Amino acid sequence: MWHLNLSIDSEARETLAARLRNALRRQIEEGALRSGTRVPSSRQLATDLGLSRTVVVEAYEQLCAEGYLLSRRGSGTFVADSAHPEVGSALTPDETPESDLWDLRAGGSDVSAFPRQDWIRCVGSVVRSAGPRELGYAPPSGLPVVRRTLAGYLGRVRGVRTRPDHLMITSGFAQGLALLCRVLRDQGHETVGVEDPGHPGEWAFIADAGLRPVGIPVDRDGLRVDQLAASGVRAVLTTPASHFPTGVALTAQRREHLVDWARAVDGWIVEDDFDAAFVARAHRLPALQSLAPDRVVYAGSASKVLAPALRLGWLAAPPALTAPIERVRAGWDIGCSGLDQLAFARLVDTGGFDRHLRRLRAEFQRRRQAVHQHVARHLPGVTPLGGDAGLQTYLVLPRWCAEDAMVDGARRRSVLVRGGRHYALRHDDRPPALVVGYAGVRGAELGRGLAGVAAAYRDLGGRVSR
Ligand SMILES: Cc1ncc(COP(=O)(O)O)c(C=O)c1O
């Protein structure tokens, strides 16, 4: 049934059919009825409006004759495309599908690996069994049963020490970060330390919340805690398991120093653990949060491990921050989709999530090795930073190699890739770099993309060994 919200002019000077035609024409011209929209059958509209069917047929015929409607035999009547031609495209340039390009930009997810069948099974089982409680409003922080599952899962795989009532399900990490920034600002913070290089999108979130991101350098041991201490900030956002975008892991000693710093300044550490699942097991340390649950806000996300479209993330907050975060959240929205939360918990409880991650981890490990082998063979003088982690490899280029020229050269070979400067908060004298993301490209595509990068390097003078 296609219904239509329509009110007809009660002015009786014109016939009913003319008034109906005018009302429909107005809706089309004003854009409420858009091109391609199916309108109700004449019988249905006549019933809905309490009119005789001949009145509706007459109005429809007139609008078809005027080019507003289009009648397709057997499939119904539609608002014609010519009624209001679309101006431009709704897609921004970044979203333009570029099917002929190899996209090696960091920040993607392998959505082709999304476990569709498992997810369908979980959604089906949740929808079949959902009662009034599951279909009604959940607490804004998330359904208690889901938070119980998540607390158990995070404790099991990441050593996170939390309780369900200190966990909050968020709409992705993005919302978690925005909530935290708001709470920090309410507590009087004006600045937040961020890793430099790091994620420009996160800096924008922080700045939008009225805080100033302060860049803290990262070296081969991770975040420079000495520089953090010298910066004067009292809150820091960090990716200790696998620094974004270099993939460097924060060493055990630096972790201790970081926690000591937080205690000394009475500050907070926000641990962004979004891709820790892909760190090779031998190199994976428990979450930083396990060292100081009273100082570290642990944050995770389903975006890289399942799909960004789910918009599911979580925060495990220190007890002292739980209530302030909940207060802010209560004023923002009334929580995330309870059905999605339950489907996710079901995936975890049935072991499907662990199975999926095992497969994905092995796949990313293969891609990472392919990048490292390709660099060793075809990009002499280029050094990968970081180890067995991350969904991208940070390649330090020789000083003579201009980063922008590499990016442009790769683009001319249909490869999209970003230079290190894209991820730099301060534009200082750091060596040129290229950040090669491999989350969204499978085997052969990755090989083609890397070949394009090597060709760009060769063109600039990089000698290729045979
Ligand atoms: C550094 C970093 N943290 C977290 C996320 C996950 O964000 P969200 O859960 O909002 O998709 C991303 C996604 O690209 C990221 O790059």
Automatic annotation (TrEMBL):
In the C-terminal section; belongs to the class-I pyridoxal-phosphate-dependent aminotransferase family. PROSITE patterns: HTH_GNTR. InterPro entries: Aminotransferase_I/II_large, HTH_trans_reg/aminotransferase, PyrdxlP-dep_Trfase, PyrdxlP-dep_Trfase_major, Tscrpt_reg_HTH_GntR, WH-like_DNA-bd_sf, WH_DNA-bd_sf. One of its GO terms (molecular function) is pyridoxal phosphate binding. Keywords: Aminotransferase, DNA-binding, Pyridoxal phosphate, Transcription, Transcription regulation, Transferase. It comes from Micromonospora auratinigra. It holds the Pfam family Aminotran_1_2. Gene3D superfamilies: Type I PLP-dependent aspartate aminotransferase-like (Major domain) (3.40.640.10), Winged helix-like DNA-binding domain superfamily/Winged helix DNA-binding domain (1.10.10.10). This is GntR family transcriptional regulator / MocR family aminotransferase. The keyword Transferase applies. The keyword Transcription applies. Residues 14-82 form the HTH gntR-type domain.
